[in-house]
User: Fold this.
Amino acid sequence: MSTIPKEEYLYKCTSACAGCSSSLCLRYVLKAAGPDTVLVVPACCTSVIQGIYPGTAMSVPVYNIAFAAAAACASGLSNALRARGKDTNVIVYAGDGGTVDIGIQALSGAFERGTDFLYICYDNEAYGNTGMQRSGATPLGARTTTTPGGKPTAKKDLDRIVEAHNPPYMATACSAYPLDLYKKVKKALSIPGPKFIHILAPCPPGWRYPTEKTIEMGKLAVKTGTWILYEREYGKLSISGPSKAAMKKPAPLEEYIKGQGRFKNLKPEILDLMRQQVEQNIQRFAREEEGQC
Amino acid sequence: MLTIATGNKAIADAVKAAKPGVIAAYPITPQTEIVEQIAEYVTSGELESRYIPVESEHSAMAACIGASAGGVRTFTATSSHGLLYMHEMIHWAAGARLPIVMANVNRALGPGWNTWAEHTDAFSQRDTGWLQVFVGTVQEAYDATLMAFRIAEDERVLLPVMVNLDGFSLSHITQSLETVDPGDFIPPYHLPHAIDPENPCVYGPMTGPDEYYKFRWDIERSMRDARGVIEEVEREFAERFGRSYGPTEDYRCEDADVVVVAMGTLGKEAEVAVDRLRDEGIKAGSMRLRWFRPFPDLDLAGREVVVIDRDYSFGFGGVVAHSIKSKTGVEPYNVIAGLGGQEVTYNDIADFVRNRRPGEEMWFGVSEHV
Amino acid sequence: MYEIRIHSRGGQGGVTAAKLIALAAFRDGKHATACPFYGAERRGAPVVSFVRIDDEPIKIYSQIHEPDLVIVLDTSIMDVVDVLQGLKPNGEVLLNSPHPIAGCNGTCHHVDLTGIALAENLVVAGSPILNTPVLGALAKMGIVTLPSARTAIREMFSDERNVKAAEAAYEELKA
Assistant:
């Protein structure tokens, strides 16, 4: 823990919910990035968490932008800063809705053009800021306010979409493993070009669990193999520590599901499908790591 | 059925009664309860409809265009930035002559992010060929949505209709609501130019300078005919369901020396201001403007007029005041108030009347007259 | 017109409390409106909601500045929010508390809504349900009738424990 700097760039006066993963992660992201950083924030929980005018909880510049436009705005901002000879970190900090749905066009364009920036998607698997409606990132079977019977389709595989753009660096992370996130952000920012980090962000009001269980939820996601922590440098895969053990012997999926109100009364067939998907995913990553593809 | 409901729930209930076959929508504060309630009705089977959870508002309107052209009644709802994000497709829907009904929960535009009531969002679409009505109560939100389907689908109109309600001030307020079974008040959907492989047509191809303007005139002609259709439909609604509506809702205007014109919930709160002013001996009246497109004829001759604009057109002026001025020749006292949900009470409205300066503009909260 | 302002934290059901009170008043044959005032609505952050009750139709949409009654569902808010601001000179206060609270001006009532909810096991996602028992307290204060309180609760919730909690609050309310 001595590697993590003491300086805070996200002050205590945020409007975050009790138990919020996103603001926990942002704290570590900013510690890794340091003060020479601009955050680009589309409509998402962070738009509100940062505080309401005339106050702010942020001590780095934050550029708020429209929902669909974060990566495009970051593209322009990054080009401008480099034109001025500045190395300032440009970091998009966006929710899943603004990344995988309405923001995907801009994301794809910025990556295809090789924009020098870091795109971080904190994924609470729903439109959190507007009250927990489904997004493309909502998993199969999850209840949201617009899928009261459970989402009938699977979670969109954002990571493979980003991978298809061959970025120099991409990674997954989870709010329950802040040191892992810190290291990944530091590594990402040391590499030029477009970088991507996808953070699983358990969310008490959205996933319907008590606010003090956020870290436990994140750990269960990783331990059950539902969320695999890994990095790709120039496409080459390396599985992160906590997931190595989980992939060898994943905890039963039920342990992750049972504590979440959004999966209450999950049909057994759906649970089976979810289990299959977790197993297939683990196998896919295991095969790739072993060199068989 | 007599109950209480929020403005948003009233819209969802009217949609359930109108039975659209396809609903495509994207969440945005403060519209979310509309789409959430509709999702529940579809999931429970109370509403048989295909609900498409699209990935953006532009796609919401594009999907509605496809569905409506495909021969099915459609509905969507949005607000503010969502409305603006679909702007291109808003133009398209009217140009394609599709009777889409959309609820727009009026909300201010960023930056900075502001989720409270303002009318600039709807007015920014005023040139698109959509009909626009602004409601002031939960009951009216319900009634106007039912009538919107009927008006839009009338063969003399065949234009989309936007039902506007104030964000938070009406969308989230709970008032009494009587729901009805519309029966044949809303006849089955019939679009004369629906897609039909047995009668193949190309829709919206390249159209040159010698033909295009004719289609634009067609839209305007239907807009003009819509005035008569609106009047007919509102009259029939009154006969069948007992509640009357018109282009404006007038309160104590008959012998008024000064009339306050406002839209949405400010137009209702103005009635309370009128009562206070009357107690002081000022013969005030309030005229809540409901229909904005087509813009109605207004009877304001011989009175002083105070227009409250919950909007602004930069470099020009308050949209409602200038619309009234250009259509009637009256020079109103234009108060710019309520932007971004700025609180405006009946006391404030009464002050606007007491301190009126005809022909001038005043930004409430900003100290000078400009 | 009778104006009520409700203070709570996001996630405690303060917004629904306003709707419930309005529904009960409506079933009593009155006109009633309920509205939330949304600041940033975040779980745990202070929120305010309003109710107006009148014999005549209500045409006011602006915030309540001079309430007749202030309800505080979470008294820890009182450290950061001036819950009594604007309270009418003869106004009343209803606190969710097992005991009286010092510094509460006006006519203060208190009832342990949290304790009542926990006793009925009325808990969702870790939070006790306060909006149904508070309706019972308001019935005791004469703002709505107890039968209408029961009707309103049954219209909005299927779990009968909510009615029991309201009845318990009705019995327990002390001045």
